[in-house]
Amino acid sequence: MAPGEPLLEVRDLVKHFPLTRGVLIKKQVGAVKAVDGVSFALRQGETLGIVGESGCGKSTVARMLVGLERPTAGHIRYRGEDITRLSGRAMKAVRRNIQMVFQDPYTSLNPRMTVGDIIGEPYEIHPEVAPKGDRRRRVQELLDVVGLNPEFVNRYPHQFSGGQRQRIGIARGLALRPEIIVADEPVSALDVSVQAQVVNLLARLQDDFGLSYVFIAHDLSVVRHLSDRVAVMYLGKIVETGTDEQIYDHPTHPYTQALLSAVPVPDPDARAHRERILLSGDVPSPADPPSGCRFRTRCWKAQELCARVEPPLAVPAAFHDDAGPARHASACHFAEERHVVPSE
Ligand SMILES: Nc1ncnc2c1ncn2[C@@H]1O[C@H](COP(=O)(O)OP(=O)(O)O)[C@@H](O)[C@H]1O
Ligand code: SF4
Ligand SMILES: [Mg+2]
What we know:
The chain is of the alpha/beta class and 344 residues long. It has helices at residues 58-65, 88-95, 115-125, 135-145, 162-174, 192-209, 220-224, 244-249, 254-261, 268-273, 304-308; strands spanning 8-21, 27-42, 47-51, 73-78, 81-82, 98-101, 180-184, 212-217, 229-234, 237-243, 329-330. The protein has a domain at 254-344. The protein has eleven helices and eleven strands. A hairpin with a 2-residue loop joins strand 9 (229-234) and strand 10 (237-243). Helix 3 (115-125) packs parallel to helix 5 (162-174), helix 4 packs across helix 5 (162-174) and helix 5 packs parallel to helix 6 (192-209). The structure holds adenosine-5'-diphosphate (ADP), iron/sulfur cluster and magnesium ion. The site of magnesium ion (MG) has 4 residues, from helix 1.
């Protein structure tokens, strides 16, 4: 990897799921454009937050990053190497370094397996990481690392709370000592009171092990604590990207502004002054996205141009000095700063 090169780089990533009709003879009648040209970079030790409403394509991006889904087009580079279409042993070796933590700790852990077997399962695929005789000790060490009692190794998932189960999922994600963790809404299924504990655990693990995270959430407030950079997704595309400060304090895309205006503000004074932007309607179908700007059917600023011309993800002309790694780009013809939520 050349100096300064990102650990993970994604270029124009696309995933279209074919829509077929017919039972015996299947005919493709269209495609669900779940991910439609997404680019980003993740640097070593950094956290990239990806946010957006449900159905925007976040999980599909995550699944492509860890090799659970094959991209329709585009590239994924890891340490400078194109890993998009690797297979067999080469793929396995790379995947060891990029692990996933799943959204729902209730369904992602096999109820018939003990916690020890769940956390140690990755060693079945990569026996070179931990010889058989050493696995139990390693699993117990991992339990300790995620704040669970190592004595629990023979218990079953149903004997744990939601937060504890997600700790088990995180321990499994760490088993192979990966460099990158892709966490797909790791706290969305948890009680609010438990969410912070799991986010704090992830932050501590990042420091202890020098991990890099792609952290996915539908709620902007969840990612703020961890993210160095944030990418906001809408209907298969990134509509705004920047540092956490740029996104939270100076959002320029109407969609980001609307998402931020929905984040609860604890301070009653600040709450009284803030302007709520209500998003009308649902996310349109990714099988038939709107022409031009995909957000236009829900955008209060939409004009005739928006239906005709798709806005590129670019740094708005007014902020052209803002380039380089701190690039604050927005896919809107009329991007402008708007102060939506006072900083904490
Ligand atoms: N295997 C699949 N086959 C067909 N459509 C899919 C498949 N997986 C996801 N989709 C569709 O792709 C879109 C994006 O889904 P997803 O990536 O799960 O979004 P998010 O994680 O942001 O909620 C949705 O419309 C979803 O229904
Ligand atoms: S390009 Fe037009 S429709 Fe799209 S976000 Fe900007 S103002 Fe709204
Ligand atoms: Mg999802």
